[in-house]
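Note on ligand handling. Small-molecule inputs were canonicalized before submission; formal charges were left as drawn, and no protonation-state enumeration was performed. Where a ligand contained multiple stereocentres, the stereochemistry in the source SMILES was retained. For zinc ion, this procedure yielded the string shown in the input block below.
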Amino acid sequence: MPSEMPYTDVHRAFLQALSHHGTMSSKQAYKALLGAYARYHDDETVPMEDQVADVVASINNKLHRYNQRVKFVHFELINTDFYVFCNQTESAIDRLQNCYTESELSLFRLMLRELACTEDNKIRPIACLNLTTEISGKAISMMRAEELLEEWEKAGYFVQLDGMWYFGPRTTVEFERYLSQNFEEQMQKCKLCNETVFYGIKCATCPLYFHRDCMRKYLKRLTKCPGCKEMWSFPVS
Ligand SMILES: [Zn+2]
Ligand SMILES: [Zn+2]
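Structure output:
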């Protein structure tokens, strides 16, 4: 249902927070909305959590003409929803080019390559730091590499979880095309919806991956893997 909400300072403040962070979990987005209401809303109404979606819809109506968009992504790795601010006038790599040196960008690309080419799309911190030896251009110290990883994690490009690095929610939105074009062989497509699967669920008997949501829906009607036709033997959490 399209939102009837007028575009106000609340929207502006919320958008500013989101474009500043680049990526927010739905919880952070709700917090930002509470803050915007507290500052700009005339009365003392407190928004409900589900109003974030309405505010985002109004913002997207407005942003449309600027070729920008707030995208909603369900990030399967940690089963959390995120909002990602996307500027479609420039590529994600171009935007990073404005903030980082050639060698730093080279490290970023190596991270993408390494994650794309490693089973389960996860790598150890030491493997990330070792990528500094492969950088094209001026060398980067391990310390600078650590700083960069921290920055990129904050911006939502990568996620550290249980001592491993993973693609972050922002990367799954902004670099989906880059990854599926450059690492077509390695990146998995969900056999059910044909979209890229970053952190889905694997069939026990064949090499196929699926989105959990897709598989859950599928198993309501059918019981065999759509790839190998073997009986699907375990529940999708
Ligand atoms: Zn799917
Ligand atoms: Zn299978």
